[in-house]
Amino acid sequence: TGRRPDPTRGRLIIYDNYGNSWHDALLVSLEGRDAGRSWGVSYTLSKTMRDVEGFQFTPQDLRNKAADKGYADNDRRHQLVANVTFPLPGGFQIGAIYQGRSALPFNPITGTDNNRDTFTNNDRPDFADPNGDPRSASTYIGTFTGRGGNVPRNYARGDAFHSVDVRASKIIRFQNRRIEGFVEAFNVTNHVNYARPNNNIRSASFGRA
Questions:
Q1: Which letter, b or e, does each residue of 123-136 get, where b requires 16 or more Cβ atoms within 10 Å of its Cβ?
Q2: What local confidence, expressed as pLDDT, does residue 20 receive?
Q3: Per 3-state DSSP, what percentage of the chain is helix, strand, and coil (rounded to 5)?
Q4: Helix, strand, or coil here: 67?
């Protein structure tokens, strides 16, 4: 009906200090060392789900917080890190590290107060096409009122992350001391790593980072 439970009050906000989190992970790592050379590879396969996110999180439906169970903001299904270090003549050394991570989720919202709880930044849409592109606004519809949408929280995904960093160094020894000079370059391939996409389906830039 849109009527307030207590018509004598405006907005009542109560923050609780509890929530639920589910995390499953497989971690595998290999490393080797030989004649001053070293290398390592680590891989993580994981899934993290929550029904709450961070400080002052507001669920879509305050009377049904379980409906906000979805992928956590920091859920990454795959993560790979590899590193290698080689000694060179003259006391020089060169090393590199690669980091690759699958995309983080983001939460499509309608950008309006569909359920009339006075919050406009957490109402999720309905599916217009359950098989549509999660990053296309045509996949969703948000014209209903009096309730929240049926799209799960953090349903869509952004872009993957890739980066290669390198380091060159030289060690100078004198007496019982050692000085190391080095130069580092980050993301040497200049790969563009995007932030989370726009999550408001009313925006012309929805789904774009």
A1: bbbbeeeeeeeebe
A2: 93
A3: 5, 40, 55
A4: helix
127-155 pLDDT tens trace: 999 999 999 999 999 999 999 999 999 99
pTM of this structure: 0.84
Neighbours of 155 (CB within 10 A): 19
Which tokens is 77 given? 């299904």
Give residue 102's identity as a one-letter amino acid code: S
Long-range residue pairs from 49-54, CB within 8 A, at least 24 positions apart, any chain: 49/21, 49/22, 49/23, 49/75, 50/19, 50/20, 50/21, 50/22, 51/19, 51/20, 52/18, 52/19, 52/20, 52/21
